[in-house]
Write a structure and sequence with these properties.
Elements (H helix, E strand, L loop, with lengths): L18 E3 L15 H19 L5 E3 L17 E4 L2 E4 H5 L18 E5 L4 E6 L2 E14 L4 E17 L1 E5 L3 E5 L6 E12 L2 E9 L5 E2 L21 E3 L7 E2 L5 E3 H16 L6 E4 L4 H15 L2 H5 L15 E5 L12 H9 L5 E5 L4 H4 L4 E7 L4 H8 L3 H11 L1 E5 L3 E8 L4 E4 L3 E2 L2
Parallel strand pairs: 3-10, 15-17
Antiparallel strand pairs: 1-2, 3-4, 5-6, 6-7, 7-8, 8-11, 9-10, 11-12, 13-23, 14-16, 17-18, 18-20, 19-20, 21-22, 22-23, 22-24
Length: about 425
Amino acid sequence: MSKPTVDKNFSQKNTNFRYVFWETNGGRTMEVKRRNTLFAFAAALLFILLGSANAYAPDIVNQWQEPAVAGNERADSNNPKLIIDGETIDLGSLLNSEIPLHNGQASGVLQGSTVEINSQEKRLHIILNDSAISMQFMNTAVDKTESSFRLRPSNLAQAALVITAPQVDVIANSQVDLITEGPGEKQVCFIMDLKDQNGKIAIGNMRRVSFPGKIAGFVFLVNDQNRLGENYIPENLIPIPREVQANQSKADMQLVEEAVNGLAKMMEQAKRDGVGGFILTSTYRPYSYQSMLFNRKIKQVGSEEKAAQIVARPGTSEHQSGLAIDFSTNGTLSDNFANTSQGNWLRQNAWKYGFILRYPADKTGITKIIYEPWHYRYVGYPYSKIMYDRNICLEEFYTNMNKYGFYAVADSNHVYLAILNQRDQKIYLSEPVPRG
């Protein structure tokens, strides 16, 4: 069975990411001569401590980062600094708009840089020579000012900092030393807390982020530019159990196993919330079945172009991925589903279980698909929360991933960082970073 590829139409600059393995030292045979009881006790204690340190050493693969400070180690971040080509920028000064950034006012080490301040995406993105210094803010508004930007943080405001440069070194006391010109790329990632202290942004609890190699296997585009082959059958395709709290309109309806698990949990919660009566109208459809539907629609409307606005061409339907569900309350797909209690509940809650409304009314110009309030697509959590919180569709998610290289999102307990590896075109998810 073939696997879908991540959108290859978004061209990427090749990146020489470094893979760092956390190593442990095997137990060593140690001869202890009998000198005296104290010496023997001390040697035994030392051996136990070394063994314990190795036993609790992380066994993850920490991609892209070459830690001079250990992954997730919390350094003294009261005054974090960026040392850019030998010149120092105080990160607090940067976030407090004390360093001019745009309108031709950038000077010093940032002179000649390209700066983007995106209020909707809550991003600060600086390109300098061959390097990028990029931040995304959570639980804070980002307002553009005449020469820079202003943050308005709420409770538990945080920021993700991703630095990509030919050379990056993390130094003690929250200092990051980077060289902005040269071949190759290295990358370091941080999460930090932000607070408003008497009108000033204070930075605290700055910590390194590690990546255990967890790939986003369900975040891929299926559309007219990213087609599934005629012989493509998704892996882990299973029947939807009858125990799932939704009526199945056909026998032997199937989804990818992870999507089935998310659906089961979602329907259970809907029932607890007093919302039932969901009908699964369509789930997995093979290429041949999609061909039949498309050809039938051509006969009804008279042309392929008109048919493609209503029924996906073979190979472009998300139903072939085994990750899409069409919901209804009466077996008929209708815009009125949005006004039902079922449609309203899904719109507000589906993201919690890894699903997104795939074709929203305000994104038709981007998706090229009509508004389908009944069509939900499994992408997995926290990717579903990213798209829900930012009000973006899957195409926009990929466009922004391509442009900025990462997305950060926070829930009530953790912060997550999703990074696009420009070398293999796969998206990797960080370890969840506890909030606060």
